[in-house]
Design a protein that fits this description.
The protein contains 28 helices and 15 strands. By secondary structure, it is α/β, with parallel strands linked by helices.
């Protein structure tokens, strides 16, 4: 994948953080912290992370989180500089940041929360940390910086017997993470002593297969160290012990560990490189190490081993797990891994929802949005794209491919970074609109899994209008998010935002005019005023949990939505007049109400002679792109022959016509 230069990446990062901070009335360190949280959550490194800032003598913290499995307490400290390349982050500074962060943990243990107002950001953080210290099995300290660190390997320590690890995410690591196209840095596992194996013969050059038996203790420890990063290419989440398969795994581990190999299907893994030990005859006999390890089938087995070891204190010395390890050429991962996972899975049915990036739904959203022009709203007449990042790194890759500074500037102009959205973002927008804020509050990964289950159960018809309305939901969500910041939602902002959108959707019976939001790329003054009135009411309900609950945990519960649903609020008369006559249910989202013309119909209303005239005018003036001239000819010919214009080409052609009219083309009057 093409890479952005580190200097350009740094400049772009600072600009994006400043722009977002200005738009959301937030500080740049807070905005940078939230941005890195999103990346780390998508990578499976952290989950349920919240920003909360506190500084006092000898201590400093910018955020906290509890791991998805509830076994790790994560604390974050941020170093954000407006001129990050002017200085390096030194060893002494790294150690100081971590020392202050650990001191905060110690103070929380000693009752720091009593110094703050109940249910304030810092109170919630101190309360969560104090409680977690009695429940978790390790503490992870993170230093997030947009400078290059000269020292990143900080030794592990302990706190009252709890292991404490340190991770430095500096500019260089963030750059590698953003430009690699992968969800995380490759997992490298050495085997000491080497693991006996059998290499299966293969005539294929892009992959080879190795068979081995792995100690169950080793798999459990790998999961403890890497958590869901080990399962990034695995298409399912760990389902705890609710499913029959997982209960069976647990029972076997507890009562018949020696039979585990016989009972269990084992794991299917992939690697970008396998280090083999060969015998005197040159035949591979052992695995010395694996690079880029991923478990693509058997995630439940792996996680169950870990959970049974840690929670049930099971003895795993007699447990062995069979492993089929496929070494796959890196450029074939996207093609081969989904098939390996689909064809090898025999424990629980894996549906197409599991292969999310290549799922038809996401492919269609990307296809349409790449050619969908959002109306200009700043008076410049310059239309833009909302860039749907179906697979991680697509935006960065496309920007890097522009190569020259001038072309990169043009790319950013047509594809503003603030209009980039991911699969997880899409799920967040849609679930908020459909009044499922408690799912959104459970974190990006869990919410996305639920979203895809619903897509699988009732596949929407993805067309032009559906995509426009999705983007309108994005505009609505982002606008509510900015308003929540104005009302000082703080670290609870993400929860307040999704609940406010859901409460607004409920109050209006989903009759907000998304088509108008799409056309204007903003909320009407009346709608914005209504959100300003509603938001603080919702915030009070979200940040006032039931006794004993933490705000973050409370927001994940249906009971929280029940409470917010009952918040007294009446739609203002001015907003009522702007609402649609009928609600936008799932069917209407996909197909509209029948009174809107699609792009194909709109293109057909323009005479074929006018399309030819646009082509001739563009040849003379050279102000349109060559492909736009060709497209005008294509549409004219289709109409002349009485054929329908495909929707995608119609969208692009109408954009070209609009550009031509703006730049001086004048249609002949009949």
């Amino acid at each position: 994948m093409a890479e952005l230069d580190l200097t350009e990446f740094s400049r772009s990062l600072v600009a994006d953080v400043q722009a977002t901070a200005d738009a959301e009335a937030a500080t740049t360190p807070e905005t940078f912290t939230r941005r890195v949280f999103e990346d780390l959550e998508q990578a499976g490194v952290v989950s349920n992370a919240f920003t909360a800032y506190h500084k006092a003598y000898g201590l400093l913290v910018h955020g906290y989180g509890i791991g998805a499995s509830g076994e790790s307490l994560d604390l974050f400290v941020t170093d954000f500089q407006l001129a990050p390349l002017d200085t390096k982050l030194t060893k002494g500074q790294v150690e100081t940041f971590f020392r202050r962060l650990l001191m905060f943990v110690v103070r929380c243990r000693d009752g720091l929360q009593k110094d703050f107002e109940p249910f304030s950001d810092v109170y919630d953080m101190c309360s969560a940390v104090e409680k977690a210290l009695t429940e978790v099995q390790r503490v992870r300290l993170f230093l997030l910086s947009n400078r290059v660190a000269t020292f990143t390997e900080v030794p592990a320590t302990d706190l009252d017997g709890l292991p404490v690890t340190h991770e430095v995410w500096d500019l260089a690591r963030l750059h590698r993470h953003a430009t690699s196209g992968a969800l995380g840095e490759p997992i490298v596992v050495p085997f000491a002593p080497p693991l006996p194996c059998v290499v299966a013969p293969s005539s294929e050059e892009d992959h080879s297969v190795v068979l081995a038996v792995v100690p169950g203790q080793m798999l459990a420890e790998l999961y403890a160290e890497y958590d869901t990063r080990l399962l990034e290419l695995n298409v399912r989440s760990f389902l705890q012990t609710r499913g029959a398969v997982n209960r069976g795994i647990r029972e076997t581990l507890l009562h018949a560990p020696g039979r585990f190999l016989a009972y269990n299907n084992g794991i299917t893994a992939t690697a970008s490189k396998v280090d083999l030990v060969r015998g005197p005859d040159g035949v591979p006999t052992h695995i010395a190490g694996v690079h880029g390890l991923q478990i693509v089938n058997g995630g439940q087995t792996t996680a169950s081993l870990h959970h049974t070891l840690t929670r049930d204190k099971a003895e795993l010395s007699e447990v062995w797990v069979q492993m089929k390890l496929t070494e796959v050429a890196p450029d074939r991962l996207a093609e081969i891994v989904p098939k390996i996972s689909e064809y090898s899975n025999t424990q629980n049915r894996v549906t197409q929802v599991d292969f999310s990036s290549n799922h038809e739904y996401h492919v269609e959203i990307q296809r349409i949005t790449r050619s969908l022009w959002a109306p200009a709203t700043d008076g410049s007449g310059q239309e833009t794209h909302w860039f749907y990042e179906r697979a991680r790194g697509q935006y960065t890759d496309a920007l890097a491919k522009a190569r020259t500074p001038a072309r990169q500037k043009q790319f950013k102009k047509l594809n503003p970074s603030k209009q980039k959205f991911t699969k997880a973002d899409l799920a967040k927008y849609v679930h908020s609109w459909h009044q499922l804020p408690y799912l959104v509050s459970r974190g990006a990964q869990k919410n996305f899994v639920e979203f895809m289950l619903r897509v699988e159960e009732a596949p929407p018809r993805v067309d032009l209008q559906y995509s426009q309305r999705l983007i309108a939901m994005a505009v609505l969500f982002k606008a509510v998010d900015r308003i929540a910041a104005i009302h000082n939602a703080g670290s609870h902002k993400s929860m307040v935002t999704t609940y406010t959108v859901a409460r607004l959707s409920l109050a209006t019976d989903r009759r907000i005019d998304l088509d108008r939001i799409w056309r204007e790329q903003s909320l009407s003054p009346v709608l914005a005023a209504a959100v300003h009135d509603l938001c603080p009411r919702v915030m009070r309900a979200v940040t006032t949990p039931l006794a004993g609950s933490h705000v973050g945990e409370w927001a994940k519960k249906v009971a929280c939505w029940d409470a917010v649903s009952e918040v007294p609020w009446t739609v203002p008369p001015a907003l009522s007049r702007e609402l649609r006559d009928k609600p936008l249910d799932a069917d209407a989202l996909a197909g509209g109400t029948g009174d809107e013309a699609g792009a194909s119909d709109e293109a057909a209303l323009v005479p074929a002679d006018e399309w030819y005239a646009i082509e001739d005018w563009a040849k003379e003036t050279r102000v349109l792109e060559p492909w736009q001239r060709q497209l005008a000819h294509f549409v004219g010919k289709r109409l002349e022959l009485g054929d329908e214009v495909p929707e995608t080409q119609a969208v692009q052609a109408l954009h070209a016509r609009k550009e031509a009219l703006r730049l001086g083309f004048t249609p002949e009057q009949p």
